[in-house]
């Protein structure tokens, strides 16, 4: 299948497919005329990458999942490296939640202080 067909079937843009390829996530074969040829497995890979990116993983962080699929697994997240990637992303989210919680507390304190100052005037 050609790049436009792959993009349509996977629900992404042609630009996204090219990006995934530039990141080494897709390795299409070349036809005699030089066109890229993609397989049904590539559709699965692109869908998986799209889903993982929507969870905030970077293209690089999707490698273990893609390798898991290429190893013949039905799911991309059953391999030890995939589980490690999940854990790392959860840790990143936890750190960000802590940062945002601290920021919220500071902002709320500033708001309370400003409101109290205003009413004392």
From TrEMBL:
Residues 83-120 form a coiled coil. Residues 1-57 form the HTH merR-type domain. Signal peptide: none annotated. PROSITE patterns: HTH_MERR_1, HTH_MERR_2. Keywords: Coiled coil, DNA-binding, Transcription, Transcription regulation. InterPro entries: DNA-bd_dom_put_sf, MerR-type_HTH_dom, MerR_fam. Pfam families: MerR_1. SUPFAM superfamilies: Putative DNA-binding domain. This is MerR family transcriptional regulator. It comes from Kribbella ginsengisoli. The lineage of its organism: Bacteria, Bacillati, Actinomycetota, Actinomycetes, Propionibacteriales.
